């Protein structure tokens, strides 16, 4: 069975102890940790990660007043002030940040224990925490939805927690255990993750309606030198890492604006003031509406491989393994999402 980390045991040992007792050198008898204590830690973790009481209401499915009561109970049990609220917003105290890290390790250990107990049963139970980068839902080549449907069919009681984050944040989440699996571009991947190839995404160079290039025939642009001859036009460039092919295509563009994700790039390109790259599946709707047009389609496009990443030294996790198995199956009879 899974054993809890030293940090998790430390968090447990602090529960329900008054501060005066914790500071004493005498060894006192510890009260048993209850399910209610664990629930309080889950509430605290959700509040901390959502950034406040109000933001955590939907996540937890309880009212802000109930969250406040739970937080007050936890602070009394620990004898610590965990957060501050006021005009400056919500912020964890130094003690709160330390308790949050301990709570994460503790809850991760409990989930690992539950997963290992699942191995004794035929049905899947537990959680799958998955991180996916933006705009992938519109890709016709994605197998994520099919794999999630397969997982749900195998384990109706499995709880799936979907997180939409930038690729770097997803990789960090996989490494620190917050995420079981992530779907990201195969760019600058940490050495300590395993990757499973999914598909390749084509990105084209686009401009919006109202841009001077919008009405130019593609043949004319290609004759002028293709995408390499468009360096005079204002362009939006990504602030996130690109594949080697992507970096090559951005050389020579005039970087007049930046975007932290593809949604941001789309906003700027649709103004008609910038050219920039978008995944075809993300741009197709606006192209059909006559609001975007691809430039130099023969020479400017590039491909980005996408992969599913997991922590290399991960513990056995039946829910994750079932999902990865579904993800790796051939597309027999399935064309995509």
Automatic annotation (TrEMBL):
Belongs to the LysR transcriptional regulatory family. This is LuxR family transcriptional regulator. The keyword Lipid biosynthesis does not apply. SUPFAM superfamilies: Periplasmic binding protein-like II, Winged helix' DNA-binding domain. Keywords: DNA-binding, Transcription, Transcription regulation. Residues 36-93 form the HTH lysR-type domain. PROSITE patterns: HTH_LYSR. The keyword Transcription regulation applies. It comes from Halomonas litopenaei. Pfam families: HTH_1, LysR_substrate. Gene3D superfamilies: 3.40.190.290, Winged helix-like DNA-binding domain superfamily/Winged helix DNA-binding domain. InterPro entries: LysR_HTH_N, LysR_subst-bd, WH-like_DNA-bd_sf, WH_DNA-bd_sf.
């Amino acid at each position: 069975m899974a054993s809890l980390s030293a940090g998790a045991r430390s968090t447990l040992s602090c529960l329900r102890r008054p501060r005066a007792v914790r500071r004493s050198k005498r060894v006192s008898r510890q009260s048993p940790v209850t399910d209610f204590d664990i629930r309080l830690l889950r509430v605290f973790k959700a509040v901390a990660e959502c950034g406040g009481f109000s933001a955590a209401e939907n996540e937890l499915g309880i009212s802000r007043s109930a969250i406040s009561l739970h937080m007050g109970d936890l602070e009394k049990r620990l004898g610590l002030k965990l957060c501050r609220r006021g005009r400056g917003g919500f912020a964890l105290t130094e003690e709160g940040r330390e308790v949050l890290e301990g709570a994460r390790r503790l809850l991760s250990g409990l989930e690992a224990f539950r997963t290992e107990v699942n191995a004794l049963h035929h049905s899947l139970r537990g959680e799958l925490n998955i991180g996916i980068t933006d705009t992938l839902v519109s890709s016709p080549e994605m197998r994520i939805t099919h794999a999630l449907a397969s997982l749900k069919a195998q384990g109706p009681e499995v709880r799936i927690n979907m997180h939409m984050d930038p690729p770097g944040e997803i990789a960090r989440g996989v490494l620190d255990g917050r995420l079981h699996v992530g779907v990201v571009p195969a760019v600058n991947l940490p050495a300590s993750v395993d990757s499973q190839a999914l598909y390749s995404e084509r990105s084209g160079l686009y401009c919006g309606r109202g841009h001077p290039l919008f009405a130019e025939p593609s043949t004319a642009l290609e004759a002028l030198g293709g995408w390499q001859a468009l360096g005079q036009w204002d362009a939006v460039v990504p602030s996130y890492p690109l594949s080697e092919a992507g970096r090559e295509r951005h050389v020579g563009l005039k970087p007049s604006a930046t975007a932290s994700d593809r949604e941001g790039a789309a906003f700027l390109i649709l103004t008609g003031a910038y050219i920039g790259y978008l995944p075809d599946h993300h741009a197709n709707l606006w192209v059909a509406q006559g609001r975007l047009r691809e430039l130099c389609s023969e020479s400017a496009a590039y491909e980005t491989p996408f992969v599913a990443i997991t922590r290399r030294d991960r513990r056995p996790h039946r829910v994750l393994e079932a999902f990865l198995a579904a993800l790796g199956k051939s597309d027999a009879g399935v064309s995509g999402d």
